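Let's practice the habit of predicting before peeking. Look at the sequence and jot down your guess about where helices and strands might fall. Then scroll down.
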Amino acid sequence: MVKRIVKRDDRREDYDREKLRRGVMKAAERAEIDEARAKELADKVANKIEVDQREEMRAEDIRNILLEELDREERAIADAFREFKKEQ
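Done guessing? Here is the structure:
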């Protein structure tokens, strides 16, 4: 199971399922997608990440998994997530 996330600047932080969920929820809110649907998708993505056998995973790999799943399941959330990240 993934325990740590390697950030772009090579810092490491503990994997946090809730942080991933919060990001999806913010994007879903912007896209005006139902909260229950957003939680379902966040959990689906988190489950994919958590079954990975690596101890560490790059943040960009997590983002790619997230966006791939959102593009497939709920494009509006994926687009809102991309837009939100551009603003930061």
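How did you do? The chain has one domain: 4-87.
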